[in-house]
Structure formats: structure tokens, C-alpha cells
Amino acid sequence: MKKTLYLMILAGLILAVASCTRSEIPDPEWNDPAGFYILLEGSANPAVFFIDGNIHSSRIYVRVTDSKGRPLSGRTIFFEQLADSASYRQVDWGYFENNGVTIRKTTNANGEVSVVFYAPTRFNSGIMYIHAVMQVDGHADRGSTSHVGNVPQDYIGITMYNSAGAAAAAE
């Protein structure tokens, strides 16, 4: 009886140890509702412009990584200018290095991409946003109209100050 009990306990322990061999949980796909797989982070340098009637530029940087912080290369990022982050009202206050109001660029081996943005020469508002969205299947879909979704994106704020030169140019 004792031998049988010990053998059953030993068999149970062997089965318990053998069934726990999974060492890694795979990440979900980027568009699964379970969470975020791809992180898109952006910044502008400089992020403040003095609007004085002259052309000033800023370099917009974006980095794309997976959930473990590994860079994702070969991803196409769509850049556009927005008046605010609460709507999708695209504006043409400034322009990108391609002389357009939007631009697409592909991330390098470090998962980074940068574009040059030329600030407006005329004061329009105190702030604007450069919206960076990762293209998926050839489309730069924003996810949903409420800005809540799993599409990798970032809003890069640019502050603008109206200087005396712009006021004189507007008169």
C-alpha cells in the first residue's frame, strides 16, 4: 500500500514537472485587441518656433520598437500636420522636406526615421501637431475616430509664438 502511494506521488510529480515546459509567452499581433505590440515614439528638435516671417526648420524623429524594445526596420511611417490632437483636421501651415503637407518615410535598421519640417512663416495658432502613423497593409489608418485604437501612432506637439516680425509682415 505504501509503495503504491509513493509511486502515485512520484508519477504525479513527474507529470507536473513535464507539463510545465513552456518558457516564453509569444507576443500578440499588433492589431489584436489584447494589447500593444508595437510602440511608436516621436519628438521634434526644436519643438518651439518663433514665427517671424522667416523659414525655420525642425527635425521630426520617430522610433518604432516591439514590446520588448527591439527596433523594427522597414516600417513605413506617414506624417501629416494637424491643427489639434482632438480631430483629424489636416492643415497646410508648413511643409515637409518633399515640399508637401504630408510625407512617407521608411524606418532604418535601428527602427528610426526622421523628416525635416519647415515651420509656417505666418502665425496660425499657438500649437500644432505632427501626427506620425505607421502604415499597415499600405494604409495609414488612424484606428478609430476617437483616437483610441491599436494603430501605432504619436502626436508630436510644436509650439509657435508670434513675434514682432510676423505681426509686421501681416499688416
Strands, helices and their partners?
Blueprint: H1 2-19, E1 38-45, E2 48-51, E3 57-66, E4 76-82, E5 95-96, E6 102-106, E7 112-118, E8 127-134, E9 153-162, H2 164-170
Parallel strand pairs: 2-9
Antiparallel strand pairs: 1-3, 3-7, 4-6, 4-8, 5-7, 8-9
Kindly describe this structure.
The chain has about 170 residues and is an alpha+beta fold. The protein contains 2 helices and 9 strands.
Gyration radius from CA atoms, angstroms: 25 Å
* Tally of contiguous helical segments: 2
Structural class: alpha+beta
Low-confidence stretches: 144-148, 166-171
Query: Based on CA inertia axes, which overall geometry fits?
Result: rod-shaped
Approximately how much helix is present in the residues? 10-25%
Strand content: 35-45%
SSE topology string: HEEEEEEEEEH
Instruction: Please summarize the sheet with the most strands.
Output: 5 strands, mixed
How far apart are the first and last residues' alpha carbons, in Å? Answer: 103 Å
- Overall average pLDDT: 81
Number of beta-strand segments:
9
